[in-house]
Amino acid sequence: MAVKIMKAVTITGDVIASSRLRPLQRKKLQNRIDQFAQSFAKQYPDLQLQQYRGDSLQATLTKSRIHAMNIALQLQCFLIAEQYHIRLSIGVGEINFQGKDVITSDGTAFQVSGPLIDELKKRNELIAVTGTDNAFAAEWQAHSESLNFVLQRLSPAQAEALYLHLQNMKQEDIAKALKISQPSVHQRLQAAGAQVFTTIIKRFESTVSLL
Question: d(Cα 181, Cα 57) in Å, to the nearest integer?
């Protein structure tokens, strides 16, 4: 079904080394991604996320597109905490055709996000951001390198704390949720480079809102 052109952000994902996962591990992964999507459904009603081929996913945001970076980084942390790794490419553009589901829709947001996931595989990186605006794409190539540096060094324990931090939870509440001390939470967030994540999320929100 064709629709009017909408500004959108598309997130394309590909689980790393999925062929090595045992059937139970693969099932757990699919359940975790479903759980993640459901947890955001009320907060972002326009979020559409679909898994396909068992190890890939695609998601779109329209009205809430400025929050795509926050969602993508939470997904990264959520899965790293579970000892899975996923590549995510974020494409900023438009949707000009909406099919029955996410993977049959089309537009520039899909067209820039899809090929980028292949580039991530070649470079052995975890995340990249691009768009149809050349200045935006150039800036976010630099930010993507910063994100890869910190994401590739996250431990599951650090990712677990960072996942809750990105939901704006206070350190005291994170400590209760993880059953550790507040100083331990602080140490994990410091080691994870939490400030890098929050700064880049804010920059994404401000730049995308202008496009």
Answer: 36
Is the separation of the CB atoms in 26 and 36 below 8 Å?
no
> How far from 98 is each of 50, 60, 116, CA to CA, in Å?
14, 11, 21
> Residue-wise over 181-192: b if at least 16 C-beta within 10 A, else e?
eeeebeebbebb
Residues 6+ apart with CB under 8 A from 25: none
Q: Are strands 86-97 and 56-61 parallel, antiparallel or unpaired?
A: unpaired
Measured CA to CA in angstroms, residue 58 lies from 106, 109, 115, 199 at distances of 12, 11, 13, 25
Q: Where are the beta strands (DSSP E) in 62-194?
A: 86-97, 127-131
Q: How many residues does the chain have?
A: 211
* Alpha-carbon distances of 170 from 50, 81, 103, rounded to whole Å: 31, 19, 37
Whole-number Å distance between alpha carbons of 80 and 6: 32
Residue 101 pLDDT grade (very low, low, confident, very high; cuts 50, 70, 90): confident
Rounded-to-integer distance, Cα 56 and Cα 24, Å: 17
pTM over the 0.90 mark: yes
Tell me if 47 sits within 8 A of 40, measured CB to CB: yes
